[in-house]
């Protein structure tokens, strides 16, 4: 019983800690203006144009930290504060999303692989727990195995997301430095924002892997009992 309490405390607290870190870093550096005096939309546009991506649009999207790159429409979408604001945090987030656009243009292998996994991961995530619950409560190891296989697709998606996000952040820092969008003091602060954001992906992947391993252990236990 103690094991389960500790386990579930870990998988709940780790993502919560990661979310607190990113919100704290973003809140802190969204209050510090970038010396270049450009808002997030202008930062994104400058990096895109410098990389020959004039066809990629930059649009505002509602919400907080709802920033993303849409590969279907070739559009960088920035949340309102980041789109109009000229903070260090906004510049870092905008540059990160443009990093994904550059990945897309260069046909970055991990990004391409992640895109191919999307329908499989969505299908597996939606159905996996039905089989898992049936397998556990009805003591049907075969049903549990099906659930594990379906869940594994979603876990793989989470793991593949890590190099995609780390690479986008690395590209963001390189682009901002080469284009003079940050001074030396701002570089460290922008990196803190991107590192905190990356932690959320690490936490999500770690929790997904742990949960998959737990189910595999349950399955092997059921096999031994049979």
Structural class: mainly alpha
- What level of helicity do the residues show? over 70%
- Residue share in β-strands: 5-15%
Low-confidence runs of at least 5 consecutive residues: none
Q: Kindly, what is the distance between the CA atoms of the first and last residues, rounded to a whole number of angstroms?
A: 23 Å
Number of helices: 7
Q: Spatial order of the strands in the main sheet?
A: 1-3-2
Radius of gyration: 20 Å
Largest sheet: 3 strands, mixed
Count of extended strands: 3
The coarse overall form would be elongated
**Helix and strand string, N-terminal first?**
HHEEEHHHHH
Mean pLDDT: 94
Describe how the helices and strands are arranged.
Blueprint: H1 2-29, H2 40-50, E1 57-61, E2 68-70, E3 75-79, H3 80-84, H4 88-105, H5 109-137, H6 141-178, H7 184-225
Parallel strand pairs: 1-3
Antiparallel strand pairs: 2-3
What does this structure look like?
This protein has seven helices and three strands, in the order ααβββααααα. The chain has 226 residues and is mainly alpha-helical. It has a domain at 2-33 and 101-225. A three-stranded mixed beta sheet has the order 1-3-2. The model has no long low-confidence stretch (mean pLDDT 94).
Which key features would you list for this structure?
mainly alpha, 3-stranded mixed sheet, 7 helices, 3 strands, elongated, transmembrane
In short:
The protein has 226 residues and is mostly helical.
